[in-house]
Specification:
Elements lengths: L3 H13 L3 H34 L5 H11 L4 H12 L14 H38 L7 H7 L1 H16 L3 H7 L9 H11 L2 H27 L2
């Protein structure tokens, strides 16, 4: 039977002392998730803004697909990406499998639909509110894209934070394509799963506390942004 108090005390000591292995894992986790979210944002914001203002053949299909992909199972993404990046796959020559780059791609695939869909909904709501004004001013839709995106900046920041929350908590896809290799692809979520199975509960608990702190910080930021809309 595990001594919960002792495990918690040791976990806190690891955090306070900035234990090297712990720091390395946290830094890699943040590097992977932040990079994935930045790439996803560069794709999602323009795409969502475009979908929120323009109507074209296939528009409903694209929006419906994005909404569906918001709930895409991470293990399915991991499996699909593994097949693409494996030696026998179409991208096997890039040698990306079991690297941090593969984990970034996996998280980007998971996050992009979330940010794009939320952006589309936000921008579309604003476009509907101001559509008559734009028509009265004779402004072409293309000239409204940047003003609408700027007006929706707080909501878009919330969408980006939601995407980061999804990325930082991901385990299935990054475990499949990253392999949880020590000093190479070990991130917080995969390490928690591994160390718990090995019985090294102190390190798992320390990483769990940090992950909870990150999650709490993201939630607090989202609430703060909403209050200033």
């Amino acid at each position: 039977m595990h001594d919960l108090g002792g495990i918690l005390a040791t976990a806190l000591q690891l955090i306070i002392n900035l234990q090297p292995e712990l720091v390395e894992i946290v830094i890699l986790s943040l590097q992977v998730s932040i990079t994935a979210v930045l790439i996803a944002t560069l794709i999602s914001i323009p795409l969502g803004t475009l979908l929120g203002t323009y109507r074209f053949p296939g528009h409903s299909l694209i929006c419906g697909t994005l909404n569906t992909l918001m709930g895409l199972p991470p293990v399915v993404v991991g499996l699909g990406l593994y097949l693409f990046l494996s030696r026998s796959g179409p991208l096997g020559d890039l040698n990306l499998l079991f690297t941090s780059s593969a984990m970034i791609i996996a998280q980007c695939i998971l996050v992009t639909p979330i940010i794009a869909s939320l952006t589309q909904q936000t921008v579309n709501d604003l476009f509907q509110q101001h559509q008559e004004q734009f028509k009265a001013l004779g402004a072409p839709i293309s000239s409204t894209l940047l003003p609408l995106a700027w007006d929706a900046r707080n909501s878009l920041l919330t969408a980006i934070l939601a995407g980061f929350g999804r990325a930082s908590a991901e385990v299935g896809a990054v475990l499949i394509v990253g392999g949880n290799i020590n000093h190479v692809t070990r991130v917080m979520t995969t390490t928690i799963a591994l160390e718990t199975s090995k019985g090294n509960l102190e390190l798992a608990m320390a990483l769990g506390i940090i992950l909870l702190a990150i999650s709490f910080s993201i939630t607090s930021l989202m609430m703060l942004v909403r209050q200033h809309k």
